[in-house]
Amino acid sequence: MFAVTTEQRQYKTYILTDQSSSACLEVVPERGGIITRWQVQHQELLYLDAERFSHPEQTVRGGVPILFPICGNLPNNLYTYGGQQYSLKQHGFARDLPWQVIDQASQDAASITLQLTSNEQTRQSYPFDFQLNFTYQLQGHSLILQQRHTNRSDQPMPFSTGLHPYFLVGDKTQLQFEIPAVQFQDQQTQTLHPFTGNFDFDQDEIDVAFRQLGQQSTRVTDHQRQFRLTLDYDATYSTLVFWTINGKDYYCLEPWSGPRNALNTGENLVQLEAGATLETRVRLNVEFLK
Prior knowledge:
The chain is mainly β. The protein is built from 3 helices and 25 strands. 5% of the residues lie in helices and 48% in strands.
């Protein structure tokens, strides 16, 4: 019923399948450990810009990129630690580096575990030793992402972690949002606005952060495609970002552990003790309405 296979395309692609629910997940470890496809009952749930994906020098727009050790950007891409200044580009480096496959299983679910370990390249912009183990598990209508962040340094390790899923959509005006917050912050102007449950999709770009979340679950109903998507995330994720661009067939709902610039401000910044491990979990589930 469950299987994990591989195909050699531009990159080696791991394909997880659950025959009972006609579910499929595709993962490309070499390209930032990214999930590039999630399909349930032959419905495509993720957007992917295949043209950008084919160019290694460009960041991927689509799938589920991994955000580490920062979410969002830093002013001038700079932060200071221990009296020294370092440079980190938007969303960090995990989404650009090759990950290693260290485990796979197909017993009770189809799963694959990827690992990213600090190296000389990462230490130039982030002076810590770390190990990240991310497990993607496909079962039925659910996709579970379990993450282990381990500090292998001899000092506390500050970081933010997050995911940046791009959900495929035809008509954004047919989306119904259940986001557990009463206000959001515009990420461009840094101003606060009440949230009424809707967005103005006539804007060129919407980039907002929900900070005071009433619960760790968000739902989006796509009335055009007749399904409801539920995003569950554990308490580590203090921020939920919504982002979309006018004229593009996607919207993003991104669980972040901390807001933009947390590495400088310290706001909701994870400080992982030496030798310690932080485990986090995100679950995506799709429910068809017909």
